[in-house]
Amino acid sequence: MIPRLARFLAVFAIALAALLLTARAQQQVVQPSGTITAERYDEDDQAAARRITAIFDQIDGLSGVEVNVREGVATLSGTVANNTAAERAAALAARYDSLVAVEDRMERTLSIAENVNPVVDQFSTTFKTAARAWPIYAIALGSFLAISLAGHLAASFRWFWMLISPNSFTSALLAQTVRIIAIITGLLVALRVLDATAFTGAVIGGAGLIGLAVSFAMRDTVENYLASILLSVRQPFRPDEHVVINDREGIVVRLTSRATILMTLDGNHLRIPNSVVFKGIILNYTRNPRRRFEFQLGIDVEDDPAAAGGVGIAALYELPFILKEPEALATLENVGDSSLILTFRAWIDQRNTDFIKARSAAINATKQALEAHDFTLPEPVYRVNLRIPDAGIGAGMAAPTQHSLRRSAEEKPETTTPIDVSPDDDIRRQAAADRAAPGLPDLLNKRQPVE
Q: What total of structural domains would you count in the chain?
């Protein structure tokens, strides 16, 4: 009997111990975060009211809020300073897990003291914090200044950047890029020292948006600037070259970061935006020293065009400035009502011969040679009414005759003036003087490749 009782007591003790351990384990379960919870014995309305009131007493500006809970609905009354405090109180009460609704019946006092004093206290706290953290601010400022100064010194070594990029424009661009990168790096390091990583991300994002907006707003300016870089790296012309850009003709003076400066053949300055130059059609007369000119002369329809062409070519070759290679040409271009149109083409060397002077002298020499070989150069045909009125033609006037309408070849004076076809350098001298003026930048140089 006693052993059976002893076994019963032992089993009962073991069961009681297991029950106590289970209960203790259940009491140590961690509640999920994110909500305000009461313990199991506080899950009634009064406990919820006491719990929320205790929380409000620990928060400045919410100690005057009264809490009444009934059937899971919390009614907040009392006074608060402003609407922000009321919304905060309602949000805190709503986090209590046993509540189903929160009624806001709080009165906003909007008193000056309750609304201004917290702001003053906050500024005072911020100032005191900043005063205590001045060494950190000093380190951040020193880091920014040191990195920016290092970038500025590195950018000031013009000889180094000219060694990397012989082009003055691109070397200056590289130096400026280094300076900007140093400033941005110094700013990021300073923000990192101040532990303002969130502000750093906002600055970077804002800079990206600002850059995008500026690029759209200044699209033409950016396009012109990029064209200046490309033109300075791969130069389509040199200074003092005779070019035609689209329909604008002149002598190249200089290339700046914004425009190409030409001096027109009548001595005027012409500025063409580099974006137009980069996309335009460029005709360069100087690159190849040989240049061909052409002109037309008409002969009578009864004359032999092949013989006239041979006479004209022989006359051209007698001129010392006409090149023998490539050969001069004479072609029958058109047959008119009263004339045959011949086109003569010949080549000159522009380094020694002016194009306009040479063409003029060639026309004169060819015309005289054709007339000397009895080729007729047709004149305009007019219909003249020779009927004389009854009153007469007046004193000192005579009716025109056939002899007065056309002069014979023997009556024409011979040309004995020496032909001057030397290059006209007036415009080039003016362009060279303009280019030599101090303080004016020029991106054209002989060290860059030419396309």
A: 3
pTM value is 0.55
Cα(422)–Cα(351) distance, integer angstroms: 9
Q: How high does pLDDT run on average in the chain?
A: 77
**CATH code: domain of residue 362:** 3.30.70.100
Average pLDDT on 30-49 reads 56
Q: Residue 357's domain spans which residues?
A: 289-380+413-420
What are the Cα distances from residue 109, in Å, to 60, 75, 77, 116, 359? 15, 18, 12, 13, 100
Nearest to 248 by CA among 228, 229, 233, 269: 269
What are residue 293's phi and psi, to 5 degrees? -115, 160
Domain contains 356 = yes
Residue ending a domain, among 184, 217, 250, is: 217
Write down the pLDDT at residue 13.
52
Confirm if 334 and 341 have CB atoms less than 8 A apart.
Answer: yes
Distance of CA 238 to CAs 232, 284, 381, 435, Å? 11, 10, 50, 12
Spatial separation of the C-alpha atoms in residues 442 and 432, rounded to whole Å: 12
List of E strands, 267-419? 269-273, 282-284, 290-299, 329-335, 340-349
Do residues 65 and 106 lie in contact, with contact meaning Cβ atoms separated by under 8 Å? yes
Name 320's Cβ contacts closer than 8 Å, sequence gap at least 6: none
